[in-house]
């Protein structure tokens, strides 16, 4: 009994220390996961705590359950609109990208560490998966707002590459233990795991939603239902030969994108549970590590870490994003935001559990790679986004939206706005009845409804509205981008009508004209260039200027920006990430200039010879 109490006391102390130190980490911008890992190391057998924890099987069990919880929340918090914006590039990164990273790092590990090919590739597979929680937490803390396509690509990739990396690790452990076998058998196992996992996950998600909506439990019981069902789906799918990690992610994705009773409370519950899972995983893995063993492999592990950051990840991202319309700077950022985290350490435990001779070496290498990734990439995400010019100016829409569960078909949301200084509402324009606030907070005090006129800049306005009216309300409280000088670099110098034709714009500004596009409107041209789906900030070059999607609503593009000169948004900071078509254009331009210079020198030589005669 006393031993159990000591274990509980030590565990809770470590969790409290993690939470308290996270406050300091937020103040200085330190990656939180690095803090949690550091606490585990300090409390471990080589640290000041001297806690001896050497049970990889227990660590893998707890870590697997925690990862299942994290993946369910990741799917639950991902909107299908993100898939519409970035499904193909993200899925390419999650599959081909994982394979490329595994191959490059595996080759390096084979030659740098003298590991057999199967075990060397295990090092690559273990560090091929990115950590979503760390990336997006750092983006939120740094006040970084990215374009939807970039953010969605990172989000979906991180949610879907975990199952791929896990299946690849299991296959490689079997190959290291029993030989490679038939490659078709490996492909068959992988496809079966993905198919079974995806189908059972969607079925499980449907069961969860139906059960909660039909049973109508007390609200406090719904989180218990989703948690237990998520673990049941995870374990059941693994038993049936599928990927439990993919299944639990798919179940969360389905549940988060349909009508679900108590969805807001469920999101809050799973967000908190995900943080607890992250803390438990990293502290536990820190306890499991034995830093005194790192000296033997420190140099090759550091070389592999920097090879991953500077070569393997950038190469994989560049190859995977070639077919898609990402700028050089966006490709550079996606390549840099490849943080490794808990999944990499959990995967590195599989060779240890599989009894491989070099299993501990694989784990120690992965541990060093994760620490370097968190130190180098985790501390520089914000500065990298600013250097690449990828931060989107803040939108003028609602600060917060809360879906309300009302009886019948009453479709209303409670929305919050901060009144913009140059908005129509702040300038005294009369508000329509459907846009009048239900509550106003001014200088941290509630203002009675009969005293809110006129609204002042900085007022926090709360009102009820149907979703289809939000674009109109945005214009009343948010103001116009045309009034903001700071947005010019991102949205352009001039504002054009989306109904203007390409021919009209070309004639007005003296731009080159393609006859095939002459009769298209600017909106149609942009939609055609981006496959029928645009988002704010999408750009199309037209001669020396750029056309930019400036504003959109539910019906399409409402205004187009015109950038007269290239900005940091389009100037490639890292030339290596240019699209092959751009390289071809630069090569043609160089060849043309060289040809012209040779012709010019010949003509000058002829003139001199003629003068001599």
UniProtKB/TrEMBL annotation:
An example Gene Ontology molecular-function term: flavin adenine dinucleotide binding
Domain RCK C-terminal: start-end pairs: 402-479
Protein keywords: Antiport, Cell inner membrane, Cell membrane, Ion transport, Membrane, Potassium, Potassium transport, Transmembrane, Transmembrane helix, Transport
GO biological process terms on file: potassium ion transport; proton transmembrane transport
Transmembrane segments: 6-26, 33-53, 59-76, 88-111, 117-139, 190-212, 224-248, 269-291, 297-321, 333-354, 366-388
Main location: membrane
Topology relative to the membrane: Multi-pass membrane protein
InterPro entries: Cation/H_exchanger_TM (IPR006153), FAD-bd_PCMH-like_sf (IPR036318), Na+/solute_symporter_sf (IPR038770), RCK_C (IPR006037), Transptr-assoc_dom (IPR005170)
Pfam families registered for this protein in UniProt: CorC_HlyC (PF03471), Na_H_Exchanger (PF00999)
Keyword Ion transport appears in the UniProt entry: yes
Coiled coil: none
Any single GO CC term annotated in Swiss-Prot or TrEMBL for this entry: plasma membrane
Intracellular or extracellular location(s): Cell membrane
Protein name in UniProt: Potassium/proton antiporter
Organism: Azospirillum griseum
């Amino acid at each position: 009994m006393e031993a159990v109490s000591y274990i509980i006391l030590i565990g809770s102390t470590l969790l409290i220390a993690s939470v308290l130190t996270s406050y300091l980490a937020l103040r200085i911008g330190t990656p939180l996961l690095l803090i949690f890992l550091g606490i585990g190391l300090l409390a471990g057998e080589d640290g000041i705590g001297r806690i001896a924890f050497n049970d990889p099987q227990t660590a893998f069990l707890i870590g697997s359950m925690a990862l299942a919880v994290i993946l369910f929340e990741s799917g639950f918090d991902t909107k299908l609109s993100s898939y519409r914006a970035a499904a193909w590039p993200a899925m390419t990164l999650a599959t081909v990208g994982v394979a490329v990273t595994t191959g490059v790092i595996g080759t390096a590990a084979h030659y740098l560490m003298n590991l057999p090919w199967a075990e060397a590739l295990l090092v690559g597979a273990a560090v091929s998966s990115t950590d979503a929680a760390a990336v997006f937490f750092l983006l939120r803390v740094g006040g970084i707002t990215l374009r939807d396509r970039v953010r969605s690509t990172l989000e979906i990739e991180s949610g879907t590459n975990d199952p791929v990396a896990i299946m690849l690790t299991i296959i490689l452990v079997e190959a290291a233990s029993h030989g490679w076998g038939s490659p078709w058998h490996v492909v068959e196992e992988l496809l079966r795991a993905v198919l079974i996992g995806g189908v059972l996950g969607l079925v499980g998600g449907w069961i969860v939603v139906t059960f909660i909506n039909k049973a109508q439990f007390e609200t406090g019981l719904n989180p218990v239902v989703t948690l237990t069902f998520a673990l049941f789906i995870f374990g059941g799918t693994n038993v049936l030969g599928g990927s439990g990690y993919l299944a639990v992610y798919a179940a969360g994705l389905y549940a988060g994108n349909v009508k679900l009773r108590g969805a807001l409370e469920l999101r809050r519950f799973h967000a908190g549970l995900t943080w607890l899972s992250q803390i438990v995983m990293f502290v536990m893995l820190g306890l499991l590590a034995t830093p005194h063993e790192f000296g033997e492999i420190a140099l090759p592990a550091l070389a592999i870490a920097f090879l991953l950051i500077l070569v393997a990840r950038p190469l994989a991202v560049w190859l995977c994003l070639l077919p898609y319309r990402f700028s050089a700077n966006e490709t550079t950022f996606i390549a840099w935001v490849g943080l490794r985290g808990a999944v990499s350490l959990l995967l590195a435990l599989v060779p240890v559990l599989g009894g491989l001779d070099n299993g501990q070496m694989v784990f120690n290498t992965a541990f060093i790679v994760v620490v370097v990734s968190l130190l180098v990439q985790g501390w520089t995400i914000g500065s990298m986004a600013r250097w690449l010019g990828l931060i989107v100016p803040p939108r003028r829409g609602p600060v917060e939206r809360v879906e309300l569960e009302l009886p019948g078909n009453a479709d209303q949301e409670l929305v919050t706005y901060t009144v913009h200084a140059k908005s129509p509402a702040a300038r005294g324009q009369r508000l329509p009845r459907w846009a009048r606030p239900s509550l106003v907070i001014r200088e941290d005090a509630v203002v009675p409804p009969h005293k809110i006129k006129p609204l002042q800049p900085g007022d926090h306005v709360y009102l009820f509205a149907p979703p289809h009216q939000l674009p109109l309300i945005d214009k009343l409280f948010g103001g116009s981008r045309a009034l903001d000088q700071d947005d010019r670099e991102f949205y352009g110098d001039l504002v054009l009508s989306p109904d203007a034709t390409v021919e009209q714009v070309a004639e007005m500004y003296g731009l080159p004209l393609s006859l095939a596009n002459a009769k298209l409107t600017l909106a149609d041209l942009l939609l055609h260039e981006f496959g029928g789906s645009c988002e704010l900030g999408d750009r199309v070059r037209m001669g020396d200027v750029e056309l930019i999607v400036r504003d959109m609503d539910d019906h399409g593009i409402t205004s187009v920006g015109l950038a007269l000169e290239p900005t940091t948004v389009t100037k490639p900071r890292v030339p290596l990430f240019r699209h092959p078509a751009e390289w071809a254009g630069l090569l043609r331009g160089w060849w043309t200039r060289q040809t012209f210079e040779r012709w010019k020198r010949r003509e000058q030589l002829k003139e001199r010879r003629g003068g001599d005669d």
